[in-house]
Amino acid sequence: MRAPVVFIDGDQGTTGLQIHERLHGRTDIRLHTLAAADRKDPQRRAQAINACDIAILCLPDAAARDAVATIVNPAVRVIDASSAHRSHPDWTYGFPEMAPGQAARIASASRVSNPGCYPTGAIGLLHPLVRDGLLPADYPISIHAVSGYSGRGRAGVEEHEGDGARQAPAYQVYGLALAHKHVPEIQQQARLGQRPIFVPAYGAFRQGIVLTVPLLSRLLAPGTTGATLHKCLARHYAEASQVSVLPLQETQALQHLDPQVLNGTNHMQLGVFENAEHGQILLSAVFDNLGKGASGAAVQNLDLMLGQ
């Protein structure tokens, strides 16, 4: 039986390099990339994408759309790691644990859009709660997330690891216009009735994410507590191998969340913290922005599409 050809278009960036590293040495696929001299040749790229079984696009949004437009072979399947198609109705959203049956939909899809790093945490927390009616769809959601500097791609790595690393900021909040490109994706996939406020930041560490969502008990469905939300999330992810929910006893003992604790894995850990006296709840997600937030998710989707 012929091993399927997997073509990585854009294997020089942070996500593409990690995907290549994760797939290198596998004998169940034939991995194909372009030589440096061919990467900017539209004809060679079109030939490569039309000759493969599954293409993984690690490109800027416009380039990803252009690459898809060159596909004339109906047998070619695509995983797009850019944000170009994450809200497109004809593309399957590549978050296997998001909803019942999502993994099966990915497995049979011809077009899969890999989730964004921040949205993976936000949607992982919010989608089950909205679906079960515990979190009103019109709740005024605010999301804060801190990522390692590799989330900026090559520019972030160069700033912190290159010649000017000593001048690199230890912490920087960005997206101050409240128009981050991940917001529509979060709103759509989490089934929110209005745009969430999303405040992202970069820290002076290479990779890893801590994402938090604060909630007020009085604005939730009547009788909803932190334990109620925890039970919903724990039930939703009970069978998931790559997403887990911290037991309430552990969250009560935690004093801090380390964004780097799951680096190098494709795992995401969710938590629910509560101060019942003040009616406040905090949802949290910790994961590797280059793992479950990017390359790990792409490989997970690839394996589903390969029937593994």
UniProtKB/TrEMBL annotation:
Protein EC: 1.2.1.38
Gene Ontology molecular-function annotations: N-acetyl-gamma-glutamyl-phosphate reductase activity; NAD binding
Subcellular location: Cytoplasm
Residue numbers annotated as active site: C117
Cellular component terms (Gene Ontology): cytoplasm
SMART domains found in the cross-reference section: Semialdhyde_dh
Assigned keywords, A-Z: Amino-acid biosynthesis, Arginine biosynthesis, Cytoplasm, NADP, Oxidoreductase
SUPFAM superfamilies per the UniProt record, alphabetical: Glyceraldehyde-3-phosphate dehydrogenase-like, C-terminal domain, NAD(P)-binding Rossmann-fold domains
Domain of life: Bacteria
Semialdehyde dehydrogenase NAD-binding domain ranges (all copies): 5-106
Pathway the protein takes part in: Amino-acid biosynthesis; L-arginine biosynthesis; N(2)-acetyl-L-ornithine from L-glutamate: step 3/4
Catalytic activity: N-acetyl-L-glutamate 5-semialdehyde + phosphate + NADP(+) = N-acetyl-L-glutamyl 5-phosphate + NADPH + H(+)
Subcellular location, principal: cytoplasm
Gene Ontology biological-process annotations: L-arginine biosynthetic process
Family: Belongs to the NAGSA dehydrogenase family. Type 2 subfamily.
Role this protein plays: Catalyzes the NADPH-dependent reduction of N-acetyl-5-glutamyl phosphate to yield N-acetyl-L-glutamate 5-semialdehyde.
NCBIfam families: argC_other
HAMAP family recorded: ArgC_type2
Name this protein carries in UniProt: N-acetyl-gamma-glutamyl-phosphate reductase
